[in-house]
Amino acid sequence: MAANENVATTLKAYPQTKLKSSNYKRKMALYGLLFASPWIIGILVFSAYPLIMSIYYSFTTYSILDHGKWVGFGNYKELMSDSTFKISIYNTLYYTFISVPLNIAVGVGLALLLNTKIKGQGIYRTLFFIPSLVPAVATTIIWLWLLNPQFGLVNYWLEQIGIPGPPWLGDESWSKPSLILMSLWGVGQAIVIYLAGLQDIPQDYYEAADIDGANTVRKLRHITLPLMTPVIFFNLIMGVIGTMQNFVLPYTLTNGTGSPADSLMFYVMYLYQNAFLYLKMGYASAMAWILFLIVVVLTALIFISQKRWVHYQGKE
């Protein structure tokens, strides 16, 4: 009889316990939202709202001084006949398709050298990483001096070995190669990532290769580079996204003009001009979404291609 009474008491108390548990969960959820509210409000106000409005503005003639009017795909059609827009796309893609592979090749090569067991290894690694810490504007000023065709150090050194120095940034045929050369200055950050990838490769593979009589070149080709492809893939993605948004370096070099002859007029520079110099915010918004689509397509192509050349440890 007493046992039955205990069961009945427990059954009566169960709904109350469940209700208390439910209230507790609601209370904790409310506290969680309260503490996360600054971030939620921030992302809604400063990210989500501008993103949505930029889509709307890309279909209007909106400017900072005027709400504008709805023009549909008018901005996009106008861009297709804009010669400067086409030049900016060409310059940006030219820079991306040469600079990114070159930075990867140089970065991997230097990482292989810095991964060797030599005296003062830490010093060498530090020396190659320090330039990447220099602000972009300061880097630009340094390179403007180095590449000066009249009294720059680069042309001076070339003259010492009997090679006439080119005009570098003063000639449209040399301006983009000069910028690509300057981009190698900040390869130190990528080197750190490559070094981490190299140290993640199990030594068992190299020991097995030594037993089989493989030389250094074969080990590099069949072990090191294949197992480094995930790191190279990551830097390739980040490099493409970064170079497609290249702005500070060419803007500082040319004071925003893109000279000589628009050879350094990059996409984001032209977008900036339309938005803040010409106050064509709707036009600039359309450019921003075209850039977004270009980056998405390039990134998707790289992701699709990874099945053929990226090798992950433990996966066939």
Automatic annotation (TrEMBL):
<feature type="transmembrane region" description="Helical">
    <location>
        <begin position="93"/>
        <end position="114"/>
    </location>
</feature>
<feature type="transmembrane region" description="Helical">
    <location>
        <begin position="28"/>
        <end position="52"/>
    </location>
</feature>
<protein>
    <submittedName>
        <fullName>Sugar ABC transporter permease</fullName>
    </submittedName>
</protein>
<keyword id="KW-1133">Transmembrane helix</keyword>
<feature type="transmembrane region" description="Helical">
    <location>
        <begin position="126"/>
        <end position="146"/>
    </location>
</feature>
<dbReference type="InterPro" id="IPR051393">
    <property type="entry name" value="ABC_transporter_permease"/>
</dbReference>
<keyword id="KW-0472">Membrane</keyword>
<feature type="domain" description="ABC transmembrane type-1">
    <location>
        <begin position="89"/>
        <end position="302"/>
    </location>
</feature>
<feature type="transmembrane region" description="Helical">
    <location>
        <begin position="178"/>
        <end position="197"/>
    </location>
</feature>
<dbReference type="Pfam" id="PF00528">
    <property type="entry name" value="BPD_transp_1"/>
</dbReference>
<feature type="transmembrane region" description="Helical">
    <location>
        <begin position="225"/>
        <end position="244"/>
    </location>
</feature>
<keyword id="KW-0813">Transport</keyword>
<feature type="transmembrane region" description="Helical">
    <location>
        <begin position="286"/>
        <end position="304"/>
    </location>
</feature>
<dbReference type="InterPro" id="IPR000515">
    <property type="entry name" value="MetI-like"/>
</dbReference>
<comment type="similarity">
    <text>Belongs to the binding-protein-dependent transport system permease family.</text>
</comment>
<keyword id="KW-0812">Transmembrane</keyword>
<keyword id="KW-1003">Cell membrane</keyword>
<dbReference type="InterPro" id="IPR035906">
    <property type="entry name" value="MetI-like_sf"/>
</dbReference>
